[in-house]
Amino acid sequence: MSPASETSTSSTPPRTNAPADGVSKGNQCHELKIKDEELGTVDLLLHTSHDERVTHYGLQGRATNVVPVTSEALAKKYGNLQDGMVAKIFWGEATRPSEPEILDKVMEIAKVHNTIKDHIPDLLWHHTFTNPTCAIREALSVPDPATGSRVLYILIFRKLEPITKLHGKELFDVWYQCILCHITLWKEGVYHRDVSPGNLMWYRRNGKLIGVLIDYDLSSLANIVGPQGNERTGTVPFMALDLLTAQAQRGEVKHLYRHDLESFMWVFAWIFLRYRQGVLLPRRLRPFDEWATLGAIACRQEKLTFLDTMTAYAPSDMDQVTWDFIVDCFVVLKKEADNRFYLRLKRPSASSGGSQQPNIESDPDAFLSKFTSLEGWVELSKPQ
């Protein structure tokens, strides 16, 4: 897979040829034509009015858009793409390794680990545009134009299904597959650091659901030292409590494996309490909407309140095994947090950057085993 070489792009009015599933004629589409060293001209028809479009806006950040896309050039190269394709368009930080670079590393690791093979996104094609924001800022005479510079990327992937469509043991199974992929990558030096429902996907192969961990543009690599950007990585409602403190927001807390595993627990609870049979509940019946609009510190307080009052959130039609499992997971997290608090009180020097971390902090398998040994985990792991 060779990166594209940009020589021309264009945007045209909507075309009238066959649209992607779910897009009726007349809805807005945008066409790009980009020169590629291997394929010649790559045509991309972006279905920007599609119901499945995902957009993330903010005053700073990546401005990520994920939209269905069709392409005659890519269809010709890859043959029958039965599930379709999506385009991920975002402004990545220029100082970070690019997502295609990280995915190259991930694919190398996947060759020797079955927990990763088939559980990572299939990158079909990508392109890096040649005008970073620092060039724009420099042209406008903005002071220190290179600070926080971003580069526009477009990545084309095979389409996957969101984990929120699942429930019961299927939800648990796909979620667990993503955990196994994540921990293997972590031990191999690829730190994901943005576990959220939108980054846990799946597809069906031979009747079996295959979990896929996606979105690596906020990931870091163990063998690369350097600036990682001026904002904290993660999606606020799912970030570990330790990462939602003022200290963490100043970049003074190291992002550890246990933080990502805690995010997996928040994701599972989020889906269980906000969806029924794979369908989002009406606003009046679902909790946590405000979490998505709060800053880090305020969201942390809301999550602590939830933990203190969990019984009030128990659905009347809940699956008892799954609810008990969620409760037990948060009990484990609370016990671990209390233990760290106790150690900090007894050994104040342990909080300093130069001190040695407790063994559990540096042993992902040991931390994960505290959850996999739970009765609920064992029960949900049993075949249907």
Q: In short, what is this structure?
A:
The protein is 32% helix and 18% strand. It has helices at residues 72-78, 99-110, 133-139, 168-187, 246-249, 257-274, 296-308, 320-346, 364-372, 375-381; strands spanning 30-36, 40-46, 54-55, 65-70, 85-93, 123-128, 150-158, 161-162, 190-191, 200-205, 208-213, 220-221, 275-276, 279-280.
For the structure shown, list the relevant keywords.
single chain; 384 residues; 7-stranded antiparallel β-sheet; disordered N terminus
H and E order: EEEEHEHEHEEHEEEEHHEEHHHH
The structural class is: alpha+beta
Tell me the total number of β-strands.
Answer: 14
Tell me about the largest β-sheet. Answer: 7 strands, antiparallel
- Helical fraction: 25-40%
- Radius of gyration from the alpha-carbon trace, in angstroms: 22 Å
Counting DSSP H or I runs of 4 or more residues, the number of helices is: 10
Distance between the termini: 39 Å
Shape: globular
Strand percent estimate: 15-25%
State the low-pLDDT regions, or none.
1-25, 227-231, 352-356
Mean pLDDT, to the nearest integer, reads 87
Descriptive overview:
30% of the residues are buried. The protein is globular. The strands form four sheets. Strands 1, 2, 3, 4, 5, 6 and 7 form a seven-stranded antiparallel beta sheet that branches. The protein is of the alpha+beta class. It is 32% helix and 18% strand. The chain has ten helices and 14 strands. Strand 1 and strand 2 form a beta hairpin. This is Protein kinase domain-containing protein. It comes from Suillus placidus.
